[in-house]
Design goal:
Its EC number is 2.5.1.54. The chain contains nine helices and ten strands. With 272 residues, the chain is of the alpha/beta class. The chain is globular. Bound molecules: phosphoenolpyruvate (PEP) and manganese (II) ion.
Length: 272
C-alpha cells in the first residue's frame, strides 16, 4: 500500500473501494444519491412536522434541522436545544425519514446520537479535536463539514480523527469556503467534490445552501454538484423562509422549489 499523505484511514490508497454507509436501509456513498432537506433550525413541533412531510413527499430521505445552532453572534437565536432533538426525532419517525442534526460539543454527542441518525459537525467545528475524538468513540454516522478556510488535506485529517478513533461512518461535506467574492455568502468549491473522491473513499455531500447563501443559486449549484459526482445534497427548505428564526431563510428553498428540484435531480443522476 502506497501511503504518502499525513492521513491514512481516510485515503483511497488505504481503502480503494467507496465507503457506503447503510443507515436503516438508506445507502450513502457509491452510486446512490441521497437528499437531506429541512430547515436551518428546528423551531417548533408543527414547523418540523410539516417540513418533514414535505421532504418525504418530495422524495428526500433525510430530515435536516439544527437544535443547537453555532451562531456568529451571542445574542442571536441559539436553537431550541434538547427539545428540538425530541421534536425532530418524532417528525422523522412519523414521516419515515432519517434525521441529521448538528452537535457542537463533546458533552452533547451522546444525547444527540440518542435522537438523531446522523450527527453533523459544522464548518466552525471542523478542527474541534475534542469533538472529533469523541465522535470516534461511537458508531453513529457523522457528516463532517469542511472548515470554511480549510484545505482538502486539513479536511481529510479532521476526518482521520474520527476514523482513527474507531468510527468508520464518516461523510465529507463541501459547504463553501471564504473567498474575496461577497455576492455569495461562501464560494461552493465544486472541484472539491471529485478531488475529495479521488483522494478518499468517503462519501461526499454538497451543501449548495450555505455554499451560496442565495436561494436562486441553490437549484443550479445542486445540479452542478450532482454532475460533478456528489453522493448527496443537504439543502435548506422552509415553509415560511421570510420568517425563519435564523438568517438562513434567504438561502432556503420554498417547498415547491424543493420538490421540483428533486424531480429534476433524479433525471440528472441517471445520466451521471
Ligand atoms: C447549518 O447546516 O445550518 C450550518 C450551520 O452549516 P455550516 O456549519 O456549514 O455553516
Ligand atoms: Mn443554516
Amino acid at each position: 500500500i502506497k501511503i504518502s499523505k499525513s492521513y491514512k484511514l481516510a485515503s483511497r490508497d488505504f481503502h480503494p473501494d467507496d465507503t457506503v454507509i447503510d443507515i436503516k436501509g438508506v445507502k450513502i456513498g457509491g452510486n446512490n444519491l441521497v437528499v437531506m432537506g429541512g430547515p436551518c433550525a428546528v423551531e417548533s413541533p408543527e414547523q418540523i412536522d410539516e417540513i418533514a412531510r414535505l421532504v418525504k413527499a418530495a422524495g428526500g430521505q433525510v430530515l435536516r434541522g439544527g437544535a443547537f445552532k453555532p451562531r456568529t453572534g451571542p445574542y442571536s437565536f441559539q436553537g431550541v436545544g434538547v427539545e428540538g432533538l425530541i421534536m425532530m426525532a418524532e417528525a422523522g419517525r412519523k414521516h419515515g425519514l432519517l434525521t441529521i442534526t448538528e452537535v457542537m460539543t463533546p458533552e452533547y454527542v451522546d444525547i444527540c446520537a440518542e435522537y438523531a441518525d446522523i450527527l453533523q459537525v459544522g464548518t466552525r467545528n471542523m478542527q474541534n479535536f475534542d469533538l472529533l475524538r469523541k465522535l470516534g468513540t461511537i458508531k453513529t454516522p457523522v457528516l463532517l463539514k469542511r472548515g470554511f478556510s480549510s484545505t482538502y488535506d486539513e479536511f481529510l485529517n479532521a476526518a482521520e480523527y474520527i476514523l482513527a478513533g474507531g468510527n468508520p461512518n464518516v461523510m465529507l461535506c463541501e459547504r463553501g469556503i471564504r473567498t474575496f467574492e461577497s455576492y455569495t455568502r461562501n464560494t461552493l468549491d465544486l472541484a472539491a467534490i471529485p478531488a475529495l473522491q479521488q483522494l478518499s473513499h468517503l462519501p461526499v455531500i454538497s451543501d449548495p445552501s450555505h455554499g451560496t447563501g442565495r436561494r436562486e443559486l441553490v437549484e443550479p449549484m445542486s445540479k452542478a454538484s450532482v454532475a460533478a459526482g456528489a453522493n448527496g445534497l443537504i439543502i435548506e427548505m422552509h415553509t415560511d423562509p421570510d420568517n425563519s428564526m435564523t438568517g438562513d431563510g434567504v438561502q432556503s428553498l420554498f417547498p415547491d422549489q424543493f420538490a421540483n428540484l428533486l424531480k429534476e435531480l433524479e433525471q440528472l443522476a441517471a445520466l451521471v
